[in-house]
Write the structure tokens for this entry.
Amino acid sequence: MRGAGTELAGESGRPAPAPTPTLLEVFRRLDAGPRGLTEGEAEERLARVGENRVPDARDPSWARLFARSARDPFTAVLLCLGLVSAAVFAWGTASVILLLVVVSCVLRASGEHRADRSTAGLRRLVATTVTVQRRADEDTAPATREIPVEELVPGDVVRLGPGDLVPADVRLLRSAGLTVHQAALTGESAPVPKSAGENDPAGTDPAGTDTAGTDTAGIGVFQHPQLCFQGTSVAAGSATAVVTATGADTRFAAAYRRTGKPPATTFERSVQGVSWILIRFALLTPPLVLMANAALRGRGLETLPFAVAVAVGLTPEMLPVLVTTCLARGAARLARAHDVIVRRLPALHDIGAMDVLCVDKTGTLTQDRPVVDRALDAEGHDDPEVLRWAAAAAWWSLQLADLPAPDALDEALLTAVDEDTLTSYDGVTALPFDPARRLATVVVRTPGRLGTHTLITKGAAEAVLERCALSDEERARLRAFAAGRAADGLRVLAVATAERPAGVRPHEGGLTFRGLVTLRDELAPTAAEALAGLAARGVTVKVLTGDHPGTAARACRDLGIPVDGVLTADRLDTLTDAELTGLAGRTTVFARCTPDHKTRITRALQSGGHTVGFLGDGVNDLPALRTADVGLAPRDAAGVTRDNADLVLAGKDLTAIGHAVNAGRHAGGNIASYLRITLSSNLGNVIAMLSAGLLLPFLPMLPAQVLVQNLCFDAAQLAFAYDRPAPSALRRPAVLDPRALLRFIVGFGALNAVADLATFGVLAFALRGPGDDEALFHSGWFTENLLTQAVVMVLLSLGVRGGARGTRDRRPGPVTWSAAALAATGLFLPMSPLGTPLGLSPLPGVYYGLLAAVLALYAVGLMAARARHEHRSRTAG
């Protein structure tokens, strides 16, 4: 008779897997034991096998960043244009393009290298650690301590608890109620049970074998009850395990190598969309210029360098550099000033664009402890005696039942009374709280009442009222009274007493109802102020909690959050996705939520057009945190939750989120300002260049002059990374809308082109016909272009999308000083020694007066267009 393994081999055509090695065999292969490694053995293995890191997770070198920068789409376009110039022997144009490429790549690589070093330093502040069992030497007893995950080596014995990331591939030694999330490896949403037993299901690989990257039968190896793998997390229970593989040898590393890039964020998709539109224009420009000049002017390939230079002028080469610099500066400032760590740089823009923040109630809006609200008698009047009875019951339950610590409700009762109240009674016996009975009872001696004891019972209103000597009508009235307090978001404890003869076994019956003690959740001290700040910034807070809807709504009202609607899980389950999308935006509180509900609500808000942030700290928050546009976690969150968050906060303090929103909008505002101003100016120059090239008998500007002008403008644009945005720009989400951006570019670009073309008339008048002196014409337009670009930088940076800034009490910022330097370059370069090699010459004095008039008219038109644009933006918003 064949065994099961033989049958499987015969049916699949593959040999049956080897039997699972025993723990003894595993230890023998690893040259380790259940007591753990010595420190010397661990150091030797770490030097031999390397750190426990996912391959390619190390910060790339500067040279590697430089090579990666060269693969940027804009850089690739510039290289193509440079090759075209070299092919037609336009060495000057090719040299300037190569200089642009090198400068752009150096700046970007340097910025990303600094950002990576800063991020690496920040990651060390929240570095994932693991509890490991090691010995000082062979003769020393093992001791547990925390070490960074990177220092883990095969043979180490580790301990795991709820919320821990599994730090490497491990074989379980002992376990208690262990379940593990394996979604990162298998896609399973439900936790998988694990145990350290020796039973091994057929069809799985032996523990610890070197199978990373090999093809196994489905996902059978991940279902093995004795094995846990790096990249998974503990959902519940605890375990002790021995490490069988680290670093590149783990299953997670094999899966990581097969995994593509993470999906692009909304911000990245917006930037990429605009970028590819510009790239298409840049690639189409040279052939269009060539065909137009050949048809209208009979020119041939001699115009190709000019056409290439015009295409380069349309390309925002500094965009990758500026985006990286803005985000890295914002992340460093957040970490330095507010202890907020940005783990993924684009997430900084995402939190600036966030308009909905989903939070839990406990620990975020409220603290993790209740406080006494009121003590009421049976008629609903304040009665301090009720609180004293309840506190005495809590105190003697703690003392006589030998409890390790009071629960949260008892602690609130004890905190609310003075010490004399607790010591005025002498405890006799206690029956601690029982979840099945939902009440606790103590017996105390009352001073001055010899031979008589007092029985005090406190607990759930329903359970206490059942034991009171009341009529049915009175009991129903008191139940409704307690239910009304609970519906108002309060926790309710009922208190009853009875006199019993000393020496007689007390019984919980025929009690006298004393009253109710209501408790509310203690509000987080900074929550109200932080919520008001978020509301002023246009961020709506949604509460997603597993708590009672009344309790959550009460906390919101106490904090000043308008409660527009409350939705419970049972109602949510009856809604379709479309119905939930429409309802989610109008609902403030989602109560009795499971992890699946939180994820579904997050998706519904995103479907409604919102940019959603999610603040979570538990393993159950992980699915929603991953689904949200930006995931946030406090530093003391569960390890798996913290490591999957985009931003890590010093604590569950909404004030820190407000600072992160400001930093994100600061960076997003600067990036948006750069795109609007740079692209509109570039488009205007390109339109003017193309028009002039067709109208004039000669090229309006030499290719080298076009490229030098572009290089000067690029250098000036870097100031946007250091600008201070208008306060009004921080009061609304920093959303980068590609359509709105293109409308802005086209409108202001056309205005810029009109100003450039108006310069023709000035040059014709000042130079008595542009055909008389090409060098003077080139110099005049070179100067005018840089001056108009400086004017655009100053005027549009003062009030783009967000209202005009008050300039009377505002000192000049980096953009203003950069624009001044750009204007000085335009005025003095033609008359400097550097002007002659570029084909530039000094301009006659009359030109400057006429140019000033043109610039003044252009500034007036620009401010009028800006005011109209801002009015339309405010109206649309």
About this structure: The domain at 341-365+524-649 is CATH 3.40.50.1000 (Rossmann fold).
